[in-house]
């Protein structure tokens, strides 16, 4: 029974296959010709499953329909099928049936058939092997390269370039190289479409023939490439397009395509001339491509800019000015293409192309910061918000490139303004996350304090509910980037205070965030914060009137009940997360120690030999900075007050740890912030004493957080006398307050 069903299936499939083949021959057109490739692959696959003999049912109609007596469309379909079927037959069938048919179609009277068969020779060569390719395919390609039809010659040239790896050195030097030279010499006299194809394959061609070029041939190909890069630029005379004949306009469009292809092949040409010779051989060409009057050319060279930077390595400083030029380009398409790899490009620029850490900070490129700010403003003024969003995301790399002071005064306030005023939500979120990363790597305590204070007062307690929604987005990013202690210290209370917000959307968004908020707590140190969280959730359950918010609150309560709390001591189930969080806290302390070291160094600048003594002290006290993975780590100053130790050994250890962190931690890839959240910065911990269940005013009592003078602080970051903070090990309760709608005054936390 099974054999009968298989025969029945084979017979039905055979009928369908033959119907398709004859249908393709009769009703073929440009659309079906492309579609037939996919259907033919499926038919061949089904033939293998059904064990049908391909020779009898496909090859016979293929041979009959490829004869000169058939129509042109039938012969075109035969060329397509031959390119797919050659590797399905045995060697004897290929020599006896397939290759004579291929030769016949290569010598067809119609140039369309010859061109189509010529393009299928690449697939046929891969199916018949190297020996038959040299003896059968190569002579046909040589003959077709001298064909009277330009499209046939073009197809032969492209097939030769794609088959360069198949031929050996003798074939390349004695047969292919003369053909390529003749093709290049005649290309300027022929149709511009040949120039377009030649410019597109020139990089691959130079790479495939690199070993057989003589110095004179090498120079000729290089000059030919340079000529193509400026093709059509000499003819520009500033006339109005309406006055130029249509033929000239069409020719100029083809010249633009040629220069665009040259920009695409520029990295390959750097390899061709060797990166050491870039300044002498190709820099002027690169300059012309970056300043080309046409946007597609500049767009393509902007895409290749990262590859060019990698190839130049230590010579990347040569293209600093071109980077500034492309950043200031009037077309946002060029900027969008450049910022795809902007972090990697800036890192190569800052390190000089080497892998070791340098403290260069792009001091040799003073125009970089104005170019970056101008690019952001130009993207913000346009309607292409996706480009603006991507640019803000890429700016997260800046802490690894420039100093924190430059970021604070030139970029940080701009990020805050975007969060406050922009109307596009993805742009606001991108600016908020970049702002959090700027805060994480900021090395000055006063600046961090001002940014935190501004986030709480103008976003968390802002007049507009839209700002309060963005504050919750910022809290989510802070939980992701910073340590648990940092969030609990500064943002826990302002966040849960929004459970009493008068706007339902704010309360709803907070309910979605509450599980992440609870995950930042540790028991028993944060038991008082857990009690306050439970009290706020309980009040939501009892007092919430909005049915949508109430439904979300009920689901959130179930999720909160299922969550397991992390303990102060390391637990097996939370070991990796606790270790990462412990590392975050450790690096936050090291950031503060770096600031203290810098202040000490500045104070000792007036003393003789102070720098040498400072460096010697750091070298003599060098200790490893990696955390042991097998033992719990306790960081001093995480609970209670952060009083510095008086032991000399601890001071030495802190000194060298902060120096090592300065040299290593900041060199981490900015693109891996999501994957490696173990690097963060934070502000110090301040004590606050209050009882559980009692109302108190939380204020900043640490002297290290004193605000700056009004003369030294920027107007955008005006200092405020207090900053809400929560210390682990103490208790505070929140007095619910539901003020702060879109039109009301800013709400202050009364705790």
Compile the SSE list and pairings.
Layout: H1 2-26, H2 30-50, H3 54-65, H4 72-85, H5 91-106, H6 111-128, H7 130-144, H8 150-162, H9 169-187, H10 192-208, H11 215-229, H12 246-264, H13 266-273, H14 278-281, H15 283-290, H16 295-303, H17 305-312, H18 320-327, H19 332-338, H20 342-351, H21 368-381, H22 385-394, H23 404-421, H24 425-440, H25 445-460, H26 465-481, H27 484-490, H28 492-496, H29 504-519, E1 522-523, H30 527-543, H31 547-562, E2 566-567, H32 575-603, H33 610-620, H34 648-664
Parallel strand pairs: 1-2
Helix pairs in contact: 1-2, 1-3, 2-4, 4-6, 5-6, 6-7, 6-8, 7-8, 8-10, 10-12, 10-13, 12-16, 13-17, 16-19, 17-20, 22-24, 23-24, 24-26, 25-26, 26-29, 29-31, 32-34
GO molecular function: protein serine/threonine phosphatase inhibitor activity
HEAT repeats: 98-135, 137-175
InterPro entries: ARM-like, ARM-type_fold, HEAT_type_2, PPP4R4
What is the overall pLDDT average? 75
Instruction: Note poorly predicted spans.
Output: 1-11, 25-35, 355-361, 608-721, 727-751
Q: Helix tally?
A: 34
Total DSSP E strands:
2
Compute the gyration radius: what is it?
A: 35 Å
Principal-axes shape call: elongated
Major sheet description: 2 strands, parallel
Distance between the termini: 84 Å
Oligomer: single chain
Into which percent range does the helicity of residues fall? 55-70%
What would you call the structural class?
mainly alpha
Estimated share of beta-strand residues: under 5%
Within the largest sheet, what's the order of strands? Answer: 1-2
GO molecular function, one term: protein serine/threonine phosphatase inhibitor activity
Keywords: Membrane, Transmembrane, Transmembrane helix
InterPro entries: ARM-like, ARM-type_fold, HEAT_type_2, PPP4R4
Organism: Ursus americanus
């Amino acid at each position: 029974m099974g054999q009968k069903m298989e025969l029945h299936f084979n017979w039905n499939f055979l009928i369908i296959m033959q119907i398709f083949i004859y249908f393709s021959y009769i009703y073929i057109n440009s659309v079906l010709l492309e579609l037939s490739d996919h259907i033919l692959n499926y038919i061949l696959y089904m033939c293998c499953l059904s064990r049908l003999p391909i020779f009898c049912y496909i090859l016979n109609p293929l041979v009959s329909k490829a004869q000169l007596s058939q129509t042109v469309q039938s012969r075109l379909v035969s060329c397509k099928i031959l390119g797919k079927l050659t590797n399905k037959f045995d060697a004897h069938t290929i020599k006896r049936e397939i290759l004579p048919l291929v030769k016949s179609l290569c010598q067809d009277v119609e140039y369309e058939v010859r061109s189509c068969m010529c393009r299928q020779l690449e697939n046929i060569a891969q199916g018949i092997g190297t020996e038959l390719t040299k003896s059968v395919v190569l002579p046909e390609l040589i003959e077709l390269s001298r064909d009277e039809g330009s499209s046939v010659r073009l197809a032969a040239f492209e097939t030769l370039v794609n088959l360069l790896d198949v031929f050996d050195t003798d074939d390349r030097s004695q047969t292919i190289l003369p053909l390529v030279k003749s093709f290049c010499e005649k290309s300027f006299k022929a149709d511009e479409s040949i120039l377009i194809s030649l410019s597109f394959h020139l990089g691959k061609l130079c790479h495939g023939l690199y070993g057989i070029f003589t110095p004179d041939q090498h120079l000729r190909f290089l000059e030919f490439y340079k000529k193509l890069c400026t093709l059509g630029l000499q003819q520009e005379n500033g006339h109005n397009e309406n006055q130029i004949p249509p033929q000239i306009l069409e020719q100029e469009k083809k010249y633009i395509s040629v220069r665009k292809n040259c920009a695409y092949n520029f990295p390959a040409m750097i390899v061709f001339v060797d990166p050491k010779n870039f300044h002498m051989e190709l820099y002027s060409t690169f300059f012309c491509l970056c300043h080309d009057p046409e946007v597609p050319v500049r767009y393509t060279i902007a895409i290749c800019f990262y590859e060019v930077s990698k190839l130049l390595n230590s010579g990347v400083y040569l293209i600093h000015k071109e980077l500034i030029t492309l950043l200031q380009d009037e077309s946002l398409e060029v900027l969008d293409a450049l910022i795809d790899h902007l972090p990697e490009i800036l890192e190569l620029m800052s390190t000089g192309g080497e892998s070791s850490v340098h403290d260069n900070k792009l001091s040799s490129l003073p125009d970089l910061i104005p170019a970056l700010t101008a690019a952001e403003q130009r993207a913000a003024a346009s309607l292409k918000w996706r480009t603006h969003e991507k640019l803000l995301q890429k700016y997260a790399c800046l802490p690894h490139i420039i100093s924190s002071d430059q970021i604070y005064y030139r970029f940080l306030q701009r990020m805050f303004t975007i969060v406050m005023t922009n109307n596009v939500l993805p742009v606001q979120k991108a600016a908020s996350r970049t702002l959090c990363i700027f805060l994480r790597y900021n090395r000055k305590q006063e600046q961090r304090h001002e940014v935190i204070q501004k986030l709480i007062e103008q976003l968390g307690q802002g007049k507009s509910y839209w700002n309060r929604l963005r504050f919750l987005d910022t809290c989510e990013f802070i939980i992701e980037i910073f340590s648990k202690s940092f969030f609990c210290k500064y943002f826990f209370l302002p966040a849960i205070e929004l459970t009493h917000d008068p706007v339902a959307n704010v309360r709803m968004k907070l309910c979605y965030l509450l599980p992440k908020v609870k995950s930042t707590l540790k028991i028993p140190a944060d038991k008082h914060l857990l009690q306050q969280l439970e009290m706020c959730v309980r009040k939501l359950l009892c007092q919430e009137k909005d049915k949508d918010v109430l439904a979300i609150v009920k689901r959130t309560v179930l999720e909160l009940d299922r969550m397991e709390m992390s303990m102060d001591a390391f637990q097996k189930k939370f070991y990796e997360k606790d270790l990462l969080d412990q590392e975050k806290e450790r690096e936050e302390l090291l950031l503060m120690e770096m600031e203290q070291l810098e202040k000490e160094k500045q104070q000792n600048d007036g003393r003789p030999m102070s720098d040498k003594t400072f460096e010697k002290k750091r070298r003599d006290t060098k200790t490893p900075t990696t955390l042991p993975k097998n033992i719990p780590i306790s960081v001093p100053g995480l609970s209670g007050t952060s009083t510095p130790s008086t032991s000399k050994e601890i001071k030495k250890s802190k000194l060298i740890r902060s120096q090592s962190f300065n040299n290593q931690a900041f060199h981490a890839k900015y693109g891996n912030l999501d994957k490696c959240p173990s690097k963060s910065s934070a502000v110090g911990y301040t004590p606050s004493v209050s009882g559980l269940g009692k109302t108190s005013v939380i204020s900043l009592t640490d002297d290290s957080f004193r605000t700056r003078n009004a003369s030294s602080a920027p107007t955008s970051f005006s200092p405020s006398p207090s900053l809400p903070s929560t210390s682990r090990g103490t208790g505070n309760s929140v007095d619910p307050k539901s003020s702060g709608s879109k039109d009301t005054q800013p709400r202050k936390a009364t705790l």
